[in-house]
Design brief:
- The chain is an alpha/beta fold.
- It has helices spanning 3-29, 33-43, 78-91, 127-137, 159-171, 179-183; strands spanning 50-54, 70-75, 95-99, 112-118, 138-149, 189-195, 202-208.
- Strands 3-2-1-4-5-7-6 form a seven-stranded mixed β-sheet.
- A hairpin with a 6-residue loop joins strand 6 (189-195) and strand 7 (202-208).
Length: 209
Amino acid sequence: MEPSRWRRWPQVFNRWRYNLYAPVYDRLAQAFAARRRRSIALLNPQPEERILLVAAGTGLDLDFMVRCRHLVAIDISDGMLARLRAHAATLGMEVDARVMDAQALEFADASFDAVVLHLALAVVPDPRACIREVERVLKPGGRVAVFDKFLHDDQRPSLLRSAGNLLSRVIATDINRRLADILAGCRLRKVHDEDAGLGGFFRIAILRK
């Protein structure tokens, strides 16, 4: 396989597995509804703001954003986005849903007032590339809501957790990423950070540019 194809392989795999998961995703992910609601409440999106949902999946965040009139949702999986469009229609919402790589956003600089990153940074192959792109498309003073699973910034994974991560990465997600590492080198600053369950295994953070 030529080098460019090797670089694309993780995204091809992500598209394949999330298209496979799309029919059952809502049943699995509904367990996080309260955390999604809390994260979006902290973000405090306003009706006239332009907001980007990265790795938007089937649109479970839409339930808490019905007042928002300028939503753009991206995901690597067209199967997920088909369900997001259907969900938006049931809520009476208009959402601009596009298949797109979160590591190479097809938007101009400073295009959005706020960005939602729910269960995204632990899934994308290169989370630093993703956060740099989020920083780029965010307006000065803009906010980012992050909900995901992270190691504490001063924590190293145990041998058991490292072993478990080998399987976890194939099935769905990396469980050994640290938010501080992902934010290193970008201008986004963390203005809020809280435990979102399982002893801090899940966290909600608000970032500001």
